[in-house]
Design a protein that fits this description.
This protein is α/β, with parallel strands linked by helices and about 290 residues long. It has 2 domains: about 5-80, Arc Repressor Mutant, subunit A, CATH 1.10.10.10; about 125-285, 3-Layer(aba) Sandwich (Rossmann fold). The chain has helices at about 5-15, 20-30, 40-45, 50-60, 65-80, 85-100, 105-125, 125-140, 155-165, 175-185, 205-215, 250-270, 270-285, and strands at about 145, 170, 190-195, 220-225, 235-240. It has a 5-stranded parallel β-sheet. Helix 11 links the parallel strand 3 and strand 4. Helix 3 (about 40-45) crosses helix 4 (about 50-60).
Length: about 290
């Protein structure tokens, strides 16, 4: 099996599946991960296919049978629900192992982990998804709203501040109750909601995505390899590894993806980007910010 979330593997396999197998895949993706713990008979009924089709589907993914598939799903859930405390314990064991091997260099470990995670993240990122995200964010007819979580609001702000310098109609989802409600209530078909959601996932992000979808807006999701539940409602999913030498998930690979998206938007905007930058810098100069 390829590394990464089962949902991500399923998404990448869609083109290789038969029409009946794709029905199983879609049921799993829309109701991920709970649908994976149904019986074969129940999953087949929900997908409108036969039980043997479900078995062929999991075989196509590389599993010996449905119990094998469910076992892998349980292991994934243990990882995606990991807390900083459990990661700390795991990191402690890893440090002990490295010390025993005579390689406890923090710089060396960080260099290996971060460079490998960034390289693997960018290599495994589907070009179509990246191009689609860039196309949506560079479309001047669309309004972009960005939302993050406890830590990921920093990533949303980072991307948002860059986009604000490059084009108009960019905003961060307001924190105030009245302002947030008004912003969400005003979403239309011209809107794009950009969501950052990483383990342990925040339920309100699912609700934000559902509200956006119900009003015709498109959702772009930045998430980890286990995939936020928001992925079931997203037009585009950009996933990253979160490998780190500390008990906390790293956003270094995610930042590399964000920077790549920004570069793509700059290229897509062409001459409009420097023109916008010159204008905003002149405004900044006149109000004493330079």
């Amino acid at each position: 099996m390829a590394s990464g979330a089962l949902a991500d593997v399923i998404r990448h396999k869609l083109g290789d599946l038969s029409p009946a197998e794709r029905k199983v895949a879609r049921v799993l993706l829309v109701n991920y991960p709970s649908a994976g713990f149904e019986t074969v008979a129940v999953l087949a009924e929900r997908a409108g296919v036969s039980a043997p089709t479900v078995i062929r589907f999991v075989n196509r993914l590389g599993y010996r049978g449905f119990p094998d598939f469910q076992s892998a799903l349980r292991e994934e859930l243990d990882e995606r629900n990991a807390s900083p405390l459990s990661l700390y314990e795991s990191a402690g064991r890893s440090r002990s192992d490295e010390a025993a091997d005579g390689d406890a260099s923090l710089l060396g470990r960080g260099s290996r982990l971060f460079s490998s995670a960034v390289a693997q993240t960018l290599t495994e990122l589907p070009p179509h998804d990246l191009e689609h995200a860039v196309s949506l964010l560079a479309d001047g007819k669309r309004r972009i709203t960005l939302a993050g979580g406890r830590f990921t609001h920093l990533l949303a702000q980072y991307l948002g501040l860059h986009l604000m310098q490059l084009r108009g109609d960019i905003r961060l989802l307001p924190a105030g109750d009245v302002e947030r409600t008004a912003a969400l209530g005003g979403l239309t078909r011209r809107d794009v909601l950009v969501v950052f959601d990483y383990r342990r996932y925040e339920q309100d992000k699912v609700i934000l995505a559902q509200l956006a979808l119900e009003q015709g807006a498109k959702v772009v999701l930045f998430t980890d390899k286990w995939l936020s539940p928001v992925s079931a409602h997203a037009e585009v999913v950009l996933s990253s590894l979160v490998t780190t030498p500390s008990p906390y998930d790293s956003f270094v690979p995610t930042l590399a993806v964000v920077e790549t998206v920004i570069a793509g938007v700059v290229a897509a905007l062409g001459d409009d980007a420097p023109a916008r930058l010159r204008h905003t810098e002149e405004i900044a100069r006149r109000i004493g910010l330079q």
